[in-house]
Design goal:
Elements (H helix, E strand, L loop, with lengths): L1 E4 L2 E4 L9 E9 L2 E9 L6 H25 L16 H13 E2 L2 E2 L1 H10 L4 E10 L8 H10 L2 E4 L2 E4 L1 E10 L3 H24 L5 H15 L18 H5 L1 H16 L4 E2 L10 H23 L3 E5 L2 E4 L2 E4 L9 E4 L5 E6 L11 E3 L8 E7 L2 E9 L11 H13 E3 L6 E8 L4 E4 L4 E5 L5 H13 L10 H6 L2
Parallel strand pairs: 11-14, 19-21, 21-23
Antiparallel strand pairs: 1-2, 3-4, 5-6, 7-10, 8-9, 12-15, 13-14, 15-16, 16-18, 17-20, 18-19, 22-23
Length: 476
């Protein structure tokens, strides 16, 4: 709709709450169009806190989880290589070779200007509207579309469209070789940003590298229209063989991947900025896993099974697969078992070991504790909501009530001991010390991480089968 602000009319739209990120707005009116880019900042966490989340996901959390698993005997009977956590100095040397080059291997500061002078492209067809008498390369599809959409005029006793869709050849830079180059530049720029933030002002030359690389990237602006590389580069094409700059980029990218082969990271970290809720919830999930492992280690548990570690041709990944199966199983010498299950579905089907008495329930994180024949369940849901104030939202707490009341064992007994949300706000406990509430998970806050450890210690690792949730309610 049109609204007047000051002396000018503006086109306005109703825009619902949206994730943080860069949003492209396009307005079309007949044959004209206007575009604008709108940047939405995260509202629940600050930019610095988002940087901490990214750094934790990219460095600290995966490495800490793998080392803790290794400490607890997860890899004793496997041929998994020992993992190493790359140091800042080693990463700076890797990035130096990528940016400046090393020996006969060119760096990106030399590669990008050379590519800009002779970029690789293929010729593709593009449809554009022209007057009928100017058409040169008509296609049957374009002509049929023109007959339906364009105005018709009489010419030599025949009706013809005034405008037709003609075909012209354009340079298409969206090729495999350019995707490899774009991915190489993107990876180096991202790593440089992270190292700069992590080291502050200790290495001032890093900012110079980053600035110069950004300027070199502007020279190859055609990469802006190139898509993402879908899989690791394995194919050496004739372009790589005949164009030295592209071959240098290919070799440099492979060298970069080999340098990080024994490093630890989160495979799905390379996501658009607008996925802040997803990144935050993944950050909460990995922190929960790490806290569970850390507390279990102190309590004398050992790893019985894990599916968190995912080996790959490009390195070692930590990934939580939401398939409803145990991602982690721990066992104590006294026979106590603890299982962590992401996205476990509790259906209403009769005969299941655990079920829902109403509707299907799917908590983000389920932690099962088995002592002899007694079972207790603890559920946690990371939440990052776009709307609302800084406190926990009513519908999120209501969902915790649903988990506690609906999930039962085969005999219909309540087994959920605790149901809490993890969110970027203040902690709020509504019933008992750990039974129902919201746990603060604020990036960069040691108090939040200590609070999560304390919650697990006082709930999961304090389970005593003498009393069930039903028994506790009868005593109130």
């Amino acid at each position: 709709k049109l609204e007047k602000f000051g002396d000018k009319l503006h086109v306005c739209i109703n825009w619902p709450a949206s994730p943080a990120g860069l949003w492209n707005i396009r307005y079309e009116n007949g044959q004209s169009s206007t575009e604008a880019t709108i940047k939405i900042q995260p509202s629940k966490i600050t930019g610095d806190q988002l940087s901490m989340v990214m750094q934790d996901l990219d460095r600290e959390l995966p490495a800490s989880i793998i080392f803790q698993l290794d400490r607890m005997g997860a890899f004793i009977s496997t041929t998994t290589t020992r993992f190493k956590k790359i140091t800042i100095e080693q990463e700076i040397e890797i990035l130096k070779r990528a940016v400046l080059g090393h020996g006969s291997q060119k760096g990106l500061l030399s590669i990008l200007p050379e590519v800009s002078r002779d970029p690789h492209f293929v010729l593709s067809d593009e449809l554009h509207q022209v007057r009928s008498e100017l058409a040169r390369r008509l296609t049957a599809q374009g002509l049929a579309s023109s007959l339906m959409r364009s105005e018709l005029v009489l010419y030599n006793k025949t009706y013809i469209p005034t405008h037709v869709l003609d075909t012209k050849k354009i340079q298409n830079f969206d090729t495999y070789e350019n995707k490899v180059l774009r991915e190489y530049v993107t990876q180096v720029q991202r790593r440089l940003r992270q190292v700069i933030k992590h080291t502050r002002d200790r290495y001032p030359y890093l900012q110079d590298w980053y600035t110069r690389l950004g300027q070199a990237r502007k020279v190859v602006a055609f990469l802006d229209g190139v898509g993402n590389l879908k899989s690791p580069p394995e194919l050496i094409t004739m372009v790589f063989l005949k164009k030295p700059a592209y071959r240098s980029a290919y070799d440099g990218y492979l060298s970069l991947r080999r340098s990080y082969k024994d490093c630890l990271t989160v495979e799905t970290l390379d996501l658009p900025f607008q996925n802040v809720p997803y990144l935050y919830e993944k950050w909460c999930t990995l922190h929960t896993i790490l806290a569970l492992l850390r507390t279990a280690d102190k309590s004398g548990f050992r790893t019985e099974m894990q599916s968190l570690y995912q080996p790959s041709c490009g390195g070692h990944w930590v990934e939580v697969i939401p398939d409803g199966r145990s991602a982690l199983q721990l066992k104590h010498a006294d026979g106590t078992r603890i299982s962590l299950i992401p996205q476990q579905s509790y259906h209403t089907d009769a005969g299941r070991r655990l079920k829902s008495i109403s509707f299907c329930q799917i908590p983000d994180i389920s932690i099962e504790v088995a002592v002899s024949d007694n079972l207790a369940l603890y559920v946690l849901d990371p939440k990052y909501k776009l709307e609302g104030d800084d406190g926990p939202k009513k519908e999120d707490i209501d969902k915790m009530h649903a988990y506690r009341d609906s999930i039962r064992d085969a005999d219909g007994r309540r087994i959920v001991r605790s149901a809490v949300i993890l969110y970027p706000g203040e902690s709020s406990i509504y019933y008992n010390a750990t039974s129902l509430g919201a746990i603060s998970m604020i990036p960069g806050s040691d108090a939040s991480l200590n609070g999560l450890d304390a919650f697990l210690l006082n709930s999961v690792f304090s389970f005593r089968p003498a009393a069930s949730p039903d028994y506790e309610e009868k005593q109130i």
